[in-house]
Amino acid sequence: MLSFNSTLTNKLKLRNAQTFWCLKLYYNDESAFVGMSDTHRVDGSDIYYGLVTDWGGYSQGLDVFNFTTSIGNMSIKMVNSQKSFQDGRFSDQLAAKNFANRKWELFQCVHGLTFDTAANMIGTGIISGGIEYNRNEIAIQLLDMGSRYHNQIPYNTVTSGSYANAPENNIGKPIPMNYGDCHDKTDIGTIPTSGAEFDRYFTKGKFPAIIVDKFDETNARIEALVDSQTPHTIDSKNIYMYDKNFFIICEDANTTASGSTITAKDMDWRVYVPLSPHNTYSGGTNYANTFDNNFGTTAYRLSQTGAGATSTGWRFPKVPQMGEFTAAKLLFAFGSFIGSAPNTNFRVAGGAGAGGSSIATFTWDGGDQTATVTSQFSDGEQASWDVEDAIFLTIDNTSGSGNMAVDIDEVGLEIQFEPSQHFSKEINEIFESTERRFNSHSGYIQKETVDQQVRIVKTKTLRTPANVDYLYFSGKGRKYGAWVDADSRNNGYNENDLIENPIYMIEDCIRNELKDHAGDALTSSHIDYASFDASGNTTDGTLGDAFNDSVGDVEFAMSQYKFTDSQDFIEKLCRQSLSWVFIDATGKFKIVTRRGADNYSAEEQSIDYNDITLDFIKKTPMNSVRNDFTINYNFDVGQNQSMSQATATDSTSKGSTAAGFYQTLEFEMDSDGVLDSTTATKLAESYRDFMKQRWITIMFDIPSAKYNHLEIGDIINFDNWDSSIKLFGAAMDSSNNFFIINSINKRPNGCEIVCTEVSD
Fold this sequence. Notes:
single chain; 760 residues; Jelly Rolls; 47 strands; 10% helix; 36% strand
């Protein structure tokens, strides 16, 4: 809601209040304006010319099901006849006064109060360049501040001036925006960090880093930029390139990671290959856990009782050739060692049992170990990367006695090689199948469909090359700036904390990627930060209600490494966090999060039924109902696709009861911000609970300006409702029926509102 002061609020409540609007149209450098109203008015030294013949109404709208908002806008008509304005036509001013793309301000006024105070501002934005006129009339379209603030992001690009040695492909390309945690996995037990160093491979994901120096002469390394902001964590052990569906790691003796820059030499790289089961030597409880990519599952125990030899084995899968083969190792994560050392060997062999030819032996001392198995492959097999073979681990105690065993948590193959220098990645243009539209001025038209938020590959001729050269890294993305602690904010986060909360990813984007007309960064003066804290704070943020989870457990990780429109990026995050972002009437970015239906217990404004004229009561369209949900998540930037799915269903709405719709209605959405299954499942369930049913919609008119402080996203209810008018058979309950304003069209003396129920 807008914050009208108490004097104005009390004036608007009076039935005989004479309300009107005053408009300021700024021009040139915006240091001066022309005032307009419906009749000639003077306010101190300000003159408002009475040229407005039709205000058209100031209109805002949000799409309840698609989490998008329309551009706040209005279209005014003014007199343009001869001698109507300063001894001429208003259109005569357009040569000396450039109004296009300049600021406008609109004020809700009553007689006896100053017109143009911040306390009664009802709208601000940018004057459209689409000014039309004839000999008698001129029409001017007024838009909200979005047309000024939104731009192409990532805002920062690789320039030849800053990066003279950048690959030609990368000049003019975006420097990625990386958010969240793509470092070591945290849900697969304790990952070994020494010995076999599995932590180099078992990460949550990969972030792209654009190469800005193909060969730095000083350090003899490739240099890449991970972000225009300094990230929370970059790790020299986790620097990769991508080739043939594999993320290939650079030996960390040849890498650096500092600030926003990573470097890597081009000679010594490794690829990790999970093993396949051996048909014959795959017996024993938990054998499959040795190659399940999880260190937290119960280990497989290889044991030998008394004299003899016991083996287990695996197979090497087919691996595509990626360069010049140098060496191969088996990586083992061993658990407990039981008994004394074998008298003969604890070894890796090319064959099973006591007769197997030994390739490498181990010290019976515990820990995580490696075994070089290069000799398992001939020179020809190494040259062609023909590594399909079997390998065995044997406890050989043929000459001894006693019981011996070893627990095996994980085993994999590491191939060391000199790569063929494949740093380029072809980038397909990806767009979301949504539409941007103005809200209707002539009445509320509800859509009969729900947009499906799925990724579509669009063929397009680009002005720049389609290949971009990247390195990749596993680390942690952007961190909170000083802004998160400024302005007496208390949201549970501090400067330099990792940004994982999608609400604050949006705020960070607004602050660091969007610019004003002078090219300066947006600040707290452009953001209703209280609304962001209401949604995202860790204590009672409404994001937790949306996901039916604690806010701290809603963790996103994503990279924006392709050019996109900033509003599209924000709306993408909105769909994944069930939120709406819009620019309010004061010109500030504001966010509202849709809570669970049982989380609404209070309204922001109660509307007296006696103050309104009821237009209609209806339900949201049948085609907005969904009952079979799929969330695609765990986005892989190498393969450019989601690797996992989470689902939720609702059997009631599929059925033939009074609450059912007798059909399966599917909904699918890509969530490239979500990596973990818990958050993805919560998101699927939240969409299910929201979209499994139709919601009551009410349209009404208010013939006074008493409620002109309301905006889209405000939660309202009704007092003194006519008890004879039921809501589809149920009585209106002012303590339980809560509605969100999803369309409002304001006039100087009232407004028209459409609201949709959000509570059960």
